[in-house]
């Protein structure tokens, strides 16, 4: 059935361009991504609060976690995901992966977190290790609070697999190209609303007489169960409806089992310029936001040293990100519809470059920003730096959700089915983590070379950010040509199949 919006007013097309008969499909997809993002955002705030405010820990410990724990876990689970997909269909794979995450969070809530003091190393032991090995001192807080580190890894993997791979694979397999132009921007609107809900939830969780981390973990588990129920509903009652058959060009391909193993997939990706450019985009984002965010969180931890204070700050950050995302999503819909793929794809690298350079400059040259600090009513340079950095991260993340994510996901749709699956696992799962872990490796090396923390390595990070931005912009421009050609090829194939 044709999914073009032809019977709607111009106002509705600009606000909610979904036909009445499509709501049965759109709404559960939107709820699934909303819950997935809600859990992801709560987990992101909790993992940072647990690690950053742990005894003898700080933002530098996050660098070691991303490199020595998160990256190997992503590579291993990406291989397992591809292997799982060879033996199971997507629906069963979804249940297995999401169920595994919920099982771990249940274990954390019932046993690991309540017994943290008994099972962790003492702060005195961690300090002794740091003094004995000063050039790798930041790795020892990771070991000292090992159950929090496991939670951190699981939280990172939730974003990679449940959101970036599972949801978007599900959407790309069941939402046609014409539908995606209308559905995907609204999915990002739901993302922004879910992020606002997280801010309000964390404020409420902090106000009640119950442990905030435990309360939040139980909420994550409950929302995860609802998410699985919605997923079952979509597969059993929505996608079985003849009205919701995807583009003819993709029929039959969805049902075939993936034939490529992980190693073979990586070999194929190495020879695919299309996936290569997509991977560069994802890698550049991961490296850029990691460098900026770790620097900002280092300052934030100094200004908000306790777990409750840090979570309260992250509640404000989540609401700011959500409200900013709502505005940018409305803008991105118009930009994508009027100007096409490339202008949308260029917004995020430009935003990160400008805000990142501004934040680094405010830390390296505080005197130049003193008039702005006084004008904004700040008397503490650290408070100004934290809020200025938060604003930069908020705008960068909001532009990522509003512009980068929909254009990245649209780029996967016209690919052959096997390449779409293996390419998404490698690009999102591996390139995404290589980006963040690559930035972490760079920072780890700089820590050892300069024997200092985030402030001391910031001049070097500024130079790296500049070159990353150039590579990102060039790759997006070249990918646009390949994407346009691929969309045209699929259109011709669909017309040929009909005739």
UniProtKB/TrEMBL annotation:
Name of the protein in question: ADP,ATP carrier protein
Matches recorded under Pfam families: TLC
Similarity remark: Belongs to the ADP/ATP translocase tlc family.
Lineage, opening ranks: Bacteria, Pseudomonadati, Pseudomonadota, Gammaproteobacteria, Candidatus Comchoanobacterales
Chief location of this protein within or outside the cell: membrane
Compartments it resides in: Membrane
InterPro entries: ADP_ATP_car_bac_type
Membrane-crossing segments per the record: 26-43, 63-82, 94-113, 150-171, 183-202, 214-234, 274-292, 312-332, 339-360, 372-395, 438-454, 460-481
Source organism per UniProt: Candidatus Comchoanobacter bicostacola
Topology in the lipid bilayer: Multi-pass membrane protein
Keywords noted in UniProt: ATP-binding, Membrane, Nucleotide-binding, Transmembrane, Transmembrane helix, Transport
Chain's role: Provides the rickettsial cell with host ATP in exchange for rickettsial ADP. This is an obligate exchange system. This energy acquiring activity is an important component of rickettsial parasitism.
